[in-house]
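Next comes one such specimen:
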Amino acid sequence: MAVSGVLLVIGLLRLAVGCDPEDLLARRLVTELSATSSPFRRVSADHRVEATPRSTNRMFHPVAGELNPYVEHLASQGAGGQNLFTFVPSPGTGTAEAVDKILARENVPVS
């Protein structure tokens, strides 16, 4: 996972724990990661918070290779902690072309 992805995941974990501080499993996970992972400790100690949960993340697909979609995190209030993440390729990029090829391969209509 790219560094920006690591920062996003750790940030989301911090957000989840902050929204539900009584969640014992989440607190146990944070304690374990703090004890065993120096990168986790370093990022967690930073305490920076982004104003908007949007980014471009690098990921790897087994067929398409590297993809760099725009990612947005949408939290739903009162939905029991459910979250929605959208991954959208920017038009005209290699990521958009790769996604179109995957969709065509799976016979999914491309708009």
Notes: The chain has two domains: 1-51, 52-111. The chain has four helices and five strands.
